[in-house]
Specification:
The complex is a heterodimer.
Chain A lengths: L1 H13 L12 H4 L8 H10 L4 E5 L4 H12 L3 E4 L4 H8 L7 E4 L8 H6 L3 E4 L3 E3 L4 E4 L15 E7 L3 E2 L2 H8 L8 E5 L4 E2 L7 E2 L6 E7 L4
Chain B lengths: L7 H10 L2 H21 L3 H20 L1 H15 L1 E6 L2 H14 L4 E4 L3 H6 L1 H7 L3 E4 L2 H8 L16 H11 L9 H18 L2 E4 L3 E3 L4 E6 L3 H7 L3 E7 L3 E2 L2 H16 L6 E5 L13 E7 L3 H5 L15 H4 L2 H6 L10 H12 L5 H5 L6 H5 L6 H13 L16 H15 L1 H14 L10 H5 L12 H8 L5
Parallel strand pairs in B: 1-10, 2-3, 2-4, 4-7, 5-8, 7-10
Antiparallel strand pairs in B: 5-6, 6-9
Helix pairs in contact in B: 2-12, 3-12, 16-19
Classes of the chains: A alpha/beta, B alpha/beta.
């Protein structure tokens, strides 16, 4: 429908009085800064307020922390991305028996039913966090497909404290998201929730019912 | 001249006011939302700075709108998102139907989209044998009951949990009656998961479209938006043409003020940035992504320098939450897709100021909407302007339906007023009668009735001012 396109753009152009663009004063965003050491606690406070659960870990013991969680919760299996850095590290440290590590290694068309009905949890890495709002930043893709953090009832996410930004705005600038983005990028700030019935909060409406953040303390 | 019987908002509002359940549902919800929003903006300076920045970003976007839309189209094309344009809702519906039919799609799951409501897309697709299922919990609840949203953010806010419990027990197969919100939510989850799994297509709205990167940003809490846009093989996004912004970093403050203004949340659960269909090596995500850009009267609004501010709206719903009228009558009384203050200026501009004369006048002009608007849309000023437009054809504007809101009675009343005021003798006689017998006039007399329907009848002074000045003189010092 290029007719519609040209007609619409033509009308918009005809009525455009090109005034001066108003200036953008971003001081209100720049004011939102915290020392790196304070960011993890701030992020945690924000996320816990919306029912996110936290597991503390060190750069060495995080796979064991996840393993212990899975055993404790009786997870039959945990979906992971074998090609991702976090996924590979988890698999390398995963003892046989108990919770089975299940790789997301096929196109969804061959995996849909199993993903929707047979997976207890999904494990992903993150590329950072946002302290101000309590959020995780993810770049789903070939190594960690999009649905890993959405379909399983439990989502376990690995977050390194050193990757937490002040605000979403500063993260976008630092990570260069404004220049180029992969097909999907994502910010997650808690388990799936709704308040559509009488404004009563209910968790796990469509996405994960529980979000577990494994917070790795890698600050010097 | 326009028929006087077009005023349905007044009748619908009067009816809504008599429904104590409805009033309680809205009052409770709006009070909660007002308190939550206030808690998110503890520092008035921060709030004002953020509003100023957001307003500037939206104003800039509109100033460069045609260029940004072209840039968005080019960026999307580069990313593999196919862009379509529609002048009218009919065109947009046909376009989407064509996309679905070409792929043999029979079922479509929907993330929340007000533009698709504007298009009446669901009904249109049903007519062509395609099931369009709402998956946002609130939208699912009202679709199941054949209703329309009563709030743009919380579509089922007019219902309480007992009503929803009865409805679910009746409409969901094998459902038991429960008033437990968690259990009700779980029921919907179960039904909708199967729908996501099997849907042939997914549809969503767009909160912000980024021209520079060709990214569609979706704000949501439930995850149904991600389900609708990532699980089915094709994703169709629909947006009004005003939704574009230049850069991704412009989105950050808009997003921050959107969730805080809307539901008093510092952030939504998901912020989903879609920049393309399934990429090289990806195992999931849709094979195709389409973006439908809809005009439906927006370019006409755009043409007017004052009314253009209407298009700054980021659809947070704060104006509704703070509106004394909306809070009392609820969203359905407006008989419009967009209720509340923003709907009162948007709907008449889309459908004609004459036809929706009722909406323009259904406001006390208290100013609360303009005060809370995160992008500083001067809603009261625009309402006043539209009131003038509705009764004047000669204002040199291109407002839809201008001049058609004039009624014979009003016209006659003003002529009479002007005629009397221009003739001092006649004026004296008229005021003499009004002061002596005005009190005796019944409240149901013609003309007076229009005023007294919802107000107390004014009692005229016993003698007019000029009469008193003549007899008492004007005291000096």
């Amino acid at each position: 429908m290029s007719d519609a396109r040209n007609a619409i753009l033509g009308r918009l152009r005809a009525s455009g009085e090109s005034g001066d663009l108003p200036a953008l004063d971003t001081a209100v965003l720049e004011r939102r800064q915290w020392p790196a050491a304070q960011r993890p606690a701030l992020l945690r406070k924000g996320m816990e307020a919306v029912h996110t659960e936290f597991l503390e870990a060190t750069p060495n013991d995080w796979p064991a922390v996840i393993r212990a969680f899975c055993e404790r919760e009786g997870l039959k299996n945990l979906l992971y991305g074998p090609a991702s850095e976090a996924g590979a590290a988890l698999a390398a440290a995963w003892p046989a028996g108990g919770t089975e590590l299940k790789p997301y290694d096929r196109p969804i068309e061959a995996f849909k039913d199993e993903l929707f009905h047979g997976v207890d949890g999904g494990f992903t890495g993150t590329i950072g966090g946002v302290a101000e709002t309590g959020s995780l930043l993810l770049l789903p893709g070939p190594a960690e497909p999009r649905l890993m953090s959405l379909v399983p009832p439990i989502h376990i996410a690995l977050l390194r404290a050193s990757t937490i930004h002040d605000t979403f705005w500063s993260a976008v600038k630092t990570l260069g998201w404004g220049r180029a983005l992969p097909p999907n990028a994502l910010m997650i700030s808690g388990p799936s929730k709704t308040a559509d019935i009488e404004q009563t909060l209910a968790y796990g409406v469509h996405g994960p019912k529980r979000l577990i953040v494994v917070l790795v303390n890698d600050l010097a | 001249m326009h028929a006087e019987n077009e005023i349905h908002f007044r009748d619908a509002a009067a009816k809504a006011l008599l429904d104590p359940q409805l009033r309680a549902n809205f009052r409770r919800a709006m009070d909660g939302l007002i308190a939550k929003r206030r808690a998110q903006f503890p520092d008035p300076r921060d709030l004002q700075d953020l509003r100023d920045l957001s307003t500037a970003i939206r104003s800039r976007s509109l100033l460069c709108l045609p260029e940004l839309l072209e840039q968005l189209e080019a960026s999307c094309a580069k990313n593999g998102i196919k862009v379509h344009w529609a002048e009218t809702c009919e065109q947009a519906n046909e376009l989407i139907l064509g996309l679905l039919q070409a792929r043999g799609a029979k079922t479509m799951v929907k993330g929340k989209s007000m533009v698709s409501e504007e298009m009446h897309l669901n009904a249109f697709l049903e007519k062509h044998g395609i099931e369009a299922l709402e998956s946002d919990l609130g939208e699912y609840i009202i679709q199941q009951d054949g209703e329309t949203p009563s709030h743009i953010i919380m579509p089922a806010i007019h219902k309480n949990k007992d009503q929803i419990a009865r409805q679910f027990a009746q409409k969901i197969k094998d459902a038991k009656y429960t008033e437990d919100v968690d259990e009700l939510t779980a029921m919907a989850r179960k039904v909708l998961r199967e729908k996501f799994l099997n849907a042939d297509a997914g549809l969503s709205g767009v909160n912000f479209a980024v021209a520079e990167t060709g990214t569609l940003c979706l704000v949501e809490n439930e995850g149904n938006g991600r389900m609708s846009t990532h699980v089915p093989p094709i994703h169709i996004a629909v947006m009004g043409l005003e939704k574009v912004v230049a850069r991704l970093e412009d989105v950050a403050p808009l997003y921050a003020i959107l969730t805080r203004s809307a539901t008093g949340q510092p952030v939504s659960t998901y912020f989903n940035l879609i920049t393309g269909p399934r990429g090289e090596g990806e195992k999931d995500g849709p094979q195709e992504v389409h973006l439908v850009i809809l005009d439906n009267g927006r370019s006409r609004i755009y043409a007017d320098p004052q009314l253009r501010a209407t298009l700054r709206c980021i659809r947070c719903g704060a104006c509704m939450n703070h509106c004394p009228v909306y809070t009392r009558v609820g969203g359905h009384a407006y008989e419009a897709i967009y209720p509340g203050p923003i709907g009162k200026i948007l709907t008449p501009q889309m459908e004609g100021v004459g036809v929706r004369h009722d909406l323009i006048h259904g406001s006390s002009l208290c100013g609360a909407c303009g005060e809370v608007c995160p992008v500083e849309i001067p809603i009261p000023e625009i309402l006043v302007r539209l009131r003038r437009e509705a009764t004047h054809e000669d204002m040199g504007s291109n407002v839809a339906g201008k001049g058609t809101g004039r009624t014979a009675t009003e016209d006659w009343a003003w002529r009479l007023w002007a005629g009397v005021s221009k003739r001092p003798g006649l004026y004296r006689i008229a005021t003499w009668f009004a002061t002596r017998f005005g009190k005796a006039l019944p409240a149901s007399a013609p003309l007076i009735k229009n005023w007294t329907q919802s107000r107390t009848k004014p009692v005229p002074a016993r003698r007019s001012l000029s009469e008193r000045m003549r007899t008492e003189g004007v005291p000096h010092e």
